[in-house]
Write a structure and sequence with these properties.
EC number: 3.5.99.6
CATH topology: Rossmann fold
Domain Glucosamine/galactosamine-6-phosphate isomerase: 12-228
Structural class: alpha/beta
Distance between the termini: 14 Å
Protein name: Glucosamine-6-phosphate deaminase
Organism: Enteractinococcus fodinae
GO molecular function: glucosamine-6-phosphate deaminase activity
CATH class: Alpha Beta
Number of helices: 7
Length: 245
């Protein structure tokens, strides 16, 4: 059963998530943490960096695994997830780049599994805590509607809605957003020991409602988290507005 925490705003939710992350790192200095990109978790990462600095927390043994990456976008492009994770996680947390792993696939890759990344996660001992956001159509990672719940890390096509939503990060608009991405699969995500999904704003209310109140179904990727052994949704009141409490 998914646990739900409704906070007054993004700031309060991000503080709670940052504290959970810091508690995990103190308890398990060699923790393996799955990190998401996008604007949703950025404040939580900044607050975690503050806690690490304040407490002089050892981060030398941590490992981080990013959720996804675009296909065909140079890694030095500011919106590649190699670049985003570097400026939101690697640099602020002052961890060595060798501790941070990001899925990769060739620019000529087409849809299909990318199993080496799951093997790399398994070799690290599995993900202790996975951070997630959610798209307006319910996608988690880049697992779009229709993705099988047992899917491993794979290359998949992005929907036009996802590309449109992500175009706000690209100066040239939707045409600059790559049509393919490599992503941890839903099956990969469900293997994490703990998962946290963060969602803020009224635009996410339908996806949150469908993820929590509708039966798990592949057309609703977020609903797969009902099958997770330990998942918590951190929401502001707007994102939770269509959930029957």
């Amino acid at each position: 059963m998914v646990k739900v925490k409704i906070l007054p705003d993004k700031e309060h939710a991000s503080e709670e998530v940052a504290q959970r992350l810091h508690d995990l790192i103190v308890e398990k200095p060699n923790a393996v943490i799955g990190v998401a990109t996008g604007s949703t978790p950025e404040l939580a990462y900044a607050l975690l960096a503050d806690k690490i600095q304040e407490h002089n927390t050892d981060v030398s043994q941590l490992q981080f695994f990013a959720l996804d990456e675009y296909i065909g976008l140079s890694w030095d492009h500011p919106e590649s997830y190699h670049a985003v994770i570097n400026r939101t996680v690697t640099e602020p947390l002052k961890v060595d780049p060798s501790q941070v792993h990001i899925p990769e696939a060739g620019d000529d890759s087409t849809e299909g599994p990318v199993r080496y990344y799951d093997e790399k996660i398994a070799e690290a001992g599995g993900i202790d805590l996975q951070l997630l956001g959610i798209g307006r159509n319910g996608h988690i990672g880049f697992n779009e509607p229709g993705t099988p719940f047992d899917a491993p890390t794979h290359v998949g096509a992005l929907t036009e809605l996802t590309r449109k939503d992500n175009s706000r990060f690209f100066d040239g608009g939707v045409e600059e957003v790559p049509p393919l991405a490599v992503t941890q699969g839903i099956g990969t995500i469900l293997k994490s020991r703990q998962a946290i999904l963060m969602a803020f704003g009224e635009a996410k209310a339908d996806a949150i409602r469908d993820s929590l109140q509708e039966p798990p179904a592949e057309e609703r990727p977020g609903s797969s988290l009902q099958m997770h052994s330990d998942c918590t949704f951190y929401l502001d009141e707007a994102a939770a507005s269509k959930v029957e409490h």
